[in-house]
Every structure is written in structure tokens, then in C-alpha cells.
Amino acid sequence: MKTKALRHSAAPIALAVTLLAAFLVLFSPLSASAHDALVSSSPAADESVETVPTALTLTFSAKLIEGEGATEVVVTDPAGESIIDGAATVDGAIVTQPLRASGPAGQYHVIWKVVSSDGHPTSGEYFFTVTVGDDAAATDEPSAAPTTAAPTAEQTIAPSPSTTPEADSGDSADGSAWIWVLSIVGILVIAGVVVWIVMSRRRGTPSSDSDTPSER
After folding, report:
1. Is residue 46 a part of any domain in this protein?
2. Per residue in 41-57, is it b (16+ CB within 10 Å) or e — as a string?
3. Structural domain that includes position 125
4. Per-residue confidence (pLDDT) for residue 97, from 0 to 100
5. CA atoms of 130 and 192, how far apart (whole Å)
6. pTM of this prediction exceeds 0.70
7. If you count Cβ atoms within 10 Å of the first and of the last residue's Cβ in the chain, which end, N or C, has fewer?
8. Is the peptide bond before 43 cis (omega within 30 degrees of 0)?
């Protein structure tokens, strides 16, 4: 009878291991396909800066894949004119896009596209605002000195960029959150099935006295 009892106790464990293995097989592809998310940028989304910075930086949640055409960043001024100054560079999870440190006050539009570490492209966009720009420098010039050249863009001192957490991480962050939710639900379901089987076995197992023939 000990062999039968061992079989009863081992059955829930074997079932739990089988369910856990099936859960990992089903949901591992979901975890692997989660794209890298934008975690911060400078200037950040909806941030206000006095003048156009010399560069824009984007920081992602994992190292990006480099290559021709893999990373693209476009920054346009209020008139829709591009202010990028050269190609973007990738250093691990950080993308740096040089900018022409010159532009009017107003809202600037940032559009980016990268290739995640899983090989899938991901993209996004946001806006930041320049409060002063070159307009103030133009109005400060004395009207009586037309021969005096206006300050060049290189002479304008841009404020040091500050890294601010990005408010909108796009669909990538949502996908990661769903993976965690599904993982927790799967673990709870497996635990519930194991508890139910163990309780059913205990209620259905006859006592040891009933297995012993009565003496007559």
C-alpha cells in the first residue's frame, strides 16, 4: 500500500511540472518579442528649453542593433524645416542626433525609428518647446548698426541637456506589462490546480484501516 500512496503523492507534482513546462513554452516567445522601449530623452517630451540644443539624445531599455538605415531621427522646427546636423550615432542603448543650435521659438517635432535588440523595428514621436530661440537675439541687435553681423549659431550657448524620464514609452511598455500580467495569472492557475488535486486526493484516499482485512 505504500507504493500506491507514493503514486498518489507524486501525481500532483508531475502534473504541476507538466503545466509549468507548457506555460513556459507558450509564453516565452511573448517575452522574447517585447520590443525595447524609450525610457528617457533630452529634451524630453513636452519639456520647455530656452534655445535649440546642439544635440538630442534618446535612451532605450536595451542595446540597439546598429547598421545602415537601422536608426533614423528627424527633428523639425515650427515651420516644418529639419534642424538635424548629420547622421545619428548609436552607443549601446543611447542614440545621439546632432542638431543645428539655431531656430525660432515654438514647438519642435521629434520622430525616431530604431531596431530593437530582438531585431524588430520600433518607432515613436513627441514634441518639445523652445521658449526663446533666435527671435530674442534678433530683437536685441541695435538698429543703428546695420554693418554689425548678428551672432552666429555657433556663438549661441545652449543649455546643458537634462535627462528626464519619458512619459510615453509607446506600445513596447504596454507589451511588457501584459507579459508580466499573463505570467502571474499563469502561475496562480498552476498553483490552484495543484492545490485542488492534492485536496481531491486526500478526500478520496481510504484510510489504512480499510485496506487491512478484518480478522474473523
Report:
1. yes
2. bbbbbeeebebbbbbbb
3. 38-168
4. 98
5. 56
6. no
7. C
8. yes
